[in-house]
Amino acid sequence: MKSIFFIFCLLAGITLAPFALAHAADVVTGGETGGETADHIPQFGSTQVTGPVTLREAIYVDRDIIQLGDIFLNTGSLADKAVVYAPAPGDTTTYGAKWLARVARYYGLEWRPDTPRSEFQVVRESQVITHEEIMDAISFALLDYGLSSDMKAELISRDVRIYLPVNAIAEIAVESLRVDERANRFSVIIAAPAGDLSAKRVQLSGRIYQTMEVPFTTRAIQSGEVISERDIEWRRVRVSRISNDTMTSARDIFGKTPRRNLKIGDMIRASQIEAPVLVPRKSLVTVLLEHPFMTLTVQGRALESGSLGDVIRIKNNHSNVIVDAVVTGSGYAVVHISSQMAMN
Known about the structure:
The chain is α+β, with helices and mostly antiparallel strands. It has 5 helices and 23 strands. The protein is elongated.
């Protein structure tokens, strides 16, 4: 009776495929699943074949049903007969020699496997919704929930993808979102294609964390070079990964120089940079002596290095008097007579 019902469904057409295929699972696999054995498989009539029946090694399909003509060449009028469901989008299924032989006998095809290792492979074509696209949808949902833009999310599973039929609309819907702000956790149910009652639904969970923009070098910067705006870019980084001396203000970076060479992509820390040396130790310095009633200029030699605004000791070249002077530029310093003894 099962065979007669299956034949009736196949003759009735593909519109009855769900019923026919469900019954066919018992027929084509024979004694393996408790269905009819190969000895009781009925024979079809003339197939009007156009040549010897041969097995295809593999096919790519973009539909739900595998037909007889997908598996064998030269099946004539039986080519469009439904045989089995295709694998899910993105999946691959392999059928062995025993299964293929039973299908051939069922449809009355003159074919036998060349070896016990003969097989037929079906690859279901698909379009992929990537992990990044899934995270974008979740991030927008978290913003709508009211989460600060400084908070970012990540999924516990970092290899999540959704495979859809090639003709489906690749849109994601966030159907459910729960956020535990104390534990910095969230759970979500997403569906794709969006708005499709038969959409694939996936439950995911992840973490949320606070971020901050910090500076990274865009090129290698040598010690002594002055850092400018074009030398850095700002990236968002987890607060937990930022050290206490990481720079967070542009005005504290621009105009400074690395203590040691910086590589491209380095996060900039306060301990790595300093104000550039404008007056090197032992170099000649032009010293401006300022007095409320007069201004004098003398030459001296720096006893220590200094950057802009630093107070350094300078020795007068003529009198050997040592004074404290404020560095005002490259090779320049100023002394206020009101607080210092004038140089002779």
